[in-house]
Amino acid sequence: MKASRRDPGAKGATDMRGIQGILEAAVYAEDLDAAEAFYGGALGLVRIQRVRDRHVFYRAGPSVLLVFNPAETVKPAPPGALPVPPHGARGPGHVCLAAEGAELDALKTRLLAHGVEIEADFHWPNGARSIYVRDPAGNSVELAEWRLWRPVAE
Amino acid sequence: MKASRRDPGAKGATDMRGIQGILEAAVYAEDLDAAEAFYGGALGLVRIQRVRDRHVFYRAGPSVLLVFNPAETVKPAPPGALPVPPHGARGPGHVCLAAEGAELDALKTRLLAHGVEIEADFHWPNGARSIYVRDPAGNSVELAEWRLWRPVAE
Predict the structure, then answer these.
(1) Size of interface A-B (CB pairs under 8 A)
(2) Which band of pLDDT confidence, cut at 50, 70 and 90, is reported for residue A23?
(3) Do B18 and A99 lie within an 8 Å CB cutoff?
């Protein structure tokens, strides 16, 4: 099953085995109240679920941003519960949310108004703009334009 | 900026501050060759970029799945390079990729044929099916149907 390092499956979209996109991206934070202040407050994402100190989830277009407390999610599912596998990372993770043009400017203004420091703000060689901030847990949260990864080129 | 814990911004899609979706989700793996065998080989994702032992990136619909070696990505960007902020998590993370119905069956068959163990395979209360496997680094990789998070309900 070892993939070739030269061209491992890069044969076009028809080779994608039915995977249509990213349904959930996860970051980890022990302090979910602080996470809510950032993701719900400063970024303005719509919260769709909070379960005590285990997790808080946010809508991100058709997808969902999951914020997990790793101290809770490393625990195996209790007997009788759905067999959701445990996980839980430590240290600064990364997620990138998509926004376009003037909406990126508005998000930057909003973040600054909430006291969030802009760690980086630049354009990639293909012209796409990325803005980077930190969530309260230290995760690197990027806001970028879809064209960052469109078209595909290697 | 402290968000209400009862209803922090859950005012509907117009409150989403221009965020259109998840552009990038990240997992961490020290052994990128093993990661390629899993994500490119067993899952069949299309690779769009590999940079030595730093990272390997895969297409996932309109989004991109990033696999980073945390030993490399924790290093600050070198002088003169784009100021991409450092990050790097340790321990099992989580990502969920979207696939539908019969394509989930085909993906399961494909994973089993590549010797990947199915850790869980069940339906959520709303009927959506999730299949969970582990990548070689121990990350919990879920394959699930879009309807898992559609419609929004709290």
Answers:
(1) 316
(2) very high
(3) yes
pTM attached to this predicted model: 0.89
Angstrom CA distances, A7 to A118, B24, B47, stand at: 37, 22, 8
Relative to beta strand B63-68, strand B55-60 is: antiparallel
B22–A120 CB contact, under 8 Å: no
Instruction: Check B65 against A110: CB less than 8 A apart.
Output: no
Q: Which pLDDT belongs to residue B151?
A: 60
Instruction: Summarize pLDDT for A11-22 with one digit per residue, the tens.
Output: 444 446 799 999
What is the value of ipTM here, to two decimals? 0.89
Kindly state the helix (H) or strand (E) to which residue A49 belongs, with its residue range: strand A47-51
The model's pLDDT over B43-102, given as tens digits with 9 standing for 90+, comes to 999 999 999 999 999 999 999 999 999 999 999 999 999 999 999 999 999 999 999 999
Structure tokens at B14: 């117009």
Q: Give the DSSP H or E segment for B73.
A: helix B70-73
Where b means 16+ CB within 10 Å and e means fewer, A73-90 reads beeeeeeeeeebbebbbe
Q: Which residues from chain A sit within 8 angstroms of residue B61, using beta carbons?
A: 16, 19-22
Q: Which of A14, A23, A24 to mutate to test the interface with B (most CBs of B within 10 A)?
A: A23
Nearest to B8 among A40, A74, A149 (CB): A40
The Cα–Cα gap between B114 and B121 comes to 17
